[in-house]
């Protein structure tokens, strides 16, 4: 069983509210669209993989923890039309709308807490994307394991029967993510990420893992 991560302010809503308030100010004053967590290279790598997946451009896609809307904007640029970004910070949604809505008004945003709110109200999705939200939940000082398990259940509930879940983490390894999700979802593939070698061991700074819905009914 994997140990829980050491808690961090990066796992608190207060941290992100304050961060996005600053980013809104920077955008309004200087046109700075804000940071892309884990860097743009990591995001583009996943976006390119999604584009090569061959799914219909009208597939319902949700970005969990949309931040400034970067991923959704790039998907819209590639022709995807059914895009929703959710974040538990009103400030993030405000920033994303300011940054993306003039160029990509088709992107919808909603303030939504993946742990506390009812995902049934969002509907089903053919593709769910997460870059950092599962990490933040894992870093929260209050009930991280309980909240992680709730998150996994919520993702499964939101996925279409043939849906794809793409998660990028800088706190959990590929093998850890597999252990966390394998009871409810089936591994589809791992998106290659740059590796480093240190002390004779090879590792990655981030892990991007793709799961699909496991429709096996136990007991049959």
Fill in the keyword field for this structure.
single chain; alpha/beta; Rossmann fold; seven-stranded mixed β-sheet; two-stranded antiparallel ribbon; 7 helices; 36% helix
Sum this structure up briefly.
With 220 residues, the chain is an alpha/beta fold.
What does this structure look like?
Belongs to the class I-like SAM-binding methyltransferase superfamily. EFM4 family. Its main location: cytoplasm. GO terms for molecular function: protein-lysine N-methyltransferase activity. It is found in: Cytoplasm. This is Protein-lysine N-methyltransferase EEDITHA_LOCUS93. This protein is α/β, with parallel strands linked by helices and 220 residues long. The protein has a single domain (9-213), classed as Vaccinia Virus protein VP39 (Rossmann fold, 3-Layer(aba) Sandwich), CATH 3.40.50.150. 36% of the residues lie in helices and 24% in strands. The chain has seven helices and nine strands, in the order ααβαβαββααβαββββ. The strands form two sheets. A seven-stranded mixed β-sheet has the order 3-2-1-4-5-9-6, sandwiched between helices. A hairpin with a 2-residue loop joins β7 (195-198) and β8. α1 (13-30) packs parallel to α4 (90-100) and α5 (133-139) packs antiparallel against α6. The protein is globular. It starts with 12 loop residues before the first helix and ends in a 7-residue tail after the last strand.
